[in-house]
């Protein structure tokens, strides 16, 4: 079957978008990684204790085991989870990041 030929759009302004983008594929990682670190920036959530930065860690980014403060259980390597730290920490942002906690995604959501 012949492909109906669309008008090829020529980009005239000089955005040199030439080369094929390199896809970095994770070799050997199977399973659904939902958002492949599409959103590296943490989002901010508020509750009665203040503001929290919440950052999603995809399974491919979880390279160490952690303990979830929500349930007290471990978060195995290769498990997608959240990293959470306080926005308005008494001792400043640096300290807040040092005090960050790793939560099961579910534990954070239902806490
Ligand atoms: Zn947990």
Automatic annotation (TrEMBL):
Top-level taxon of origin: Bacteria
Region Disordered, residue ranges: 1-42
This protein's name: ATP/GTP-binding protein
Source organism (scientific name): Rothia koreensis
């Amino acid at each position: 079957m012949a492909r109906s030929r669309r008008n090829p759009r020529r980009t005239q302004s000089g955005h040199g978008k030439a080369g094929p983008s390199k896809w970095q594929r994770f070799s050997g990682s199977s399973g659904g990684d939902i958002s492949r670190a599409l959103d590296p920036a943490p989002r901010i959530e508020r509750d009665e204790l203040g503001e929290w930065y919440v950052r999603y860690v995809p399974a491919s980014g979880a390279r160490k085991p952690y303990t979830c403060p929500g349930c007290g259980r471990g978060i195995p390597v290769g498990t997608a989870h959240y990293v959470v730290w306080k926005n308005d920490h008494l001792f400043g942002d640096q300290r807040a990041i040092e005090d960050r906690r790793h939560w099961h995604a579910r534990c954070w959501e239902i806490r």
